[in-house]
Design goal:
Helices cover 28% and strands 24% of the residues. The chain is an alpha+beta fold.
């Protein structure tokens, strides 16, 4: 679904840069904060830190009081996506954002850069399990205080370097049970259907 368009766009005006397009469709900070924490259980929402968008740039919208960080929907991308993760994953997540901002968008290149950073000690992965939850919807036309009707959730638990043999979790993808993705990698995680 298309995001809300400015009257000028409807009249045929074209915004040239992605930053200008993002600014044109950015939601107020309050909306971003409310919708960004939706992937979390109610008990964790009020204390989560929130990163969101102002003038086309990712900024801190709210400092947290617990160990969760939520990333608001990127207005420059189609649809709605908010993700929340444990603070111990922030170096990994921030590195991915930095690589994409530098123009590296191919998954293998991002993974290779992150792996080199982990091996060199520049990037530390969590020492224990760490949760990530994401909420997806076709558009952002909903009340940010409640989950959109037509939406889906993704929950994963990062277990760095876990394998089938070390965790007892099958690496065969499945829709009816947890399974291990990227076994043996620093970003190994359990997919929770």
């Amino acid at each position: 679904m298309m995001r809300h368009l400015l009257p000028a766009l409807a009249a045929g005006a074209v915004l040239a840069s992605p930053a200008l397009r993002a600014q044109a469709t950015e939601r107020p900070a309050k909306w971003q904060v409310s919708s960004a924490v939706l992937p979390l259980p109610d008990s964790m929402r009020a204390g989560a830190a929130v990163l969101g968008y102002q003038n086309g740039k990712l900024v801190s919208l709210r400092r947290g009081t617990n160990d969760m960080i939520c990333l608001a929907d990127n207005p420059a991308q189609k649809g709605f996506e908010a993700s929340c993760y444990h603070r111990s994953l922030e170096p990994f997540m921030a590195r991915g954002r930095a690589l994409r901002a530098a123009g590296i968008t191919e998954r293998h290149a991002i993974d290779s850069a992150r792996l080199a950073d982990v091996r060199s000690g520049r990037l530390r992965m969590p020492r224990g399990p760490a949760m990530l939850a994401s909420l997806f919807a076709d558009n952002d036309d909903f009340d940010p205080r409640s989950r959109p009707e037509k939406s889906s959730m993704l929950h994963v638990i990062y277990l760095p370097y876990a394998t089938e043999s070390s965790s007892g979790i099958s690496s065969a993808p499945a829709k009816d049970r947890p399974w291990l993705m990227y076994g043996g990698k620093p970003w190994a995680h359990v997919m929770l259907p």
